[in-house]
Amino acid sequence: MPIATFPPDDPNDDRELIIRLLAILGPRINANGLMFALICRLVDANGFIHTLLHRFADAVFRDSFLLRMARYIKEHPYQAAFMVAGIVLSANPLALAGFGTLGPIAGSIAAGWQASMGASVVAGSLFSVLQSAGMVYGAVMPAIGGGILGSAVVSAVVEAQIERIKEWGRALRGWWNGLTGW
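Given the sequence above, the corresponding structure tokens read:
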């Protein structure tokens, strides 16, 4: 059960949204903490996405968000790439195109493509390769994507925590040196 739900009672009250985010993420609101909160189901993901899309209608919020994301991608290109790859694989693009685990999905792009080829599909053609991949990897692809996405998020969270631990270590070393005179 989520600790906080979104949207807030009054969707026009940004203070309430900020207070709820602070309650979830503590004093440091950052992308790593937010992703961690979403993955651990501390936040209602559907409600949060609804609120985020609502906020994207505001040009100031949208520009600020896009600038922060561009800075994050520039500072952490590999983590960002793995997050995107994980999201894409989790969405299972082959199934979205209609290449299902039991064959082409009725009414999909793949079904239309197969219908345009007639009764026979040539072995080794692009269609047959995509359909084979959809049948073999269709059930596994979302799990692989989730693993990649989870690993990228954990990596980002650990990286942020390592910096905090280093700061704590420097403070402790200064305290110890002051205490012992070393």
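The chain has a mean pLDDT of 76. Try to locate this feature in the token string yourself.
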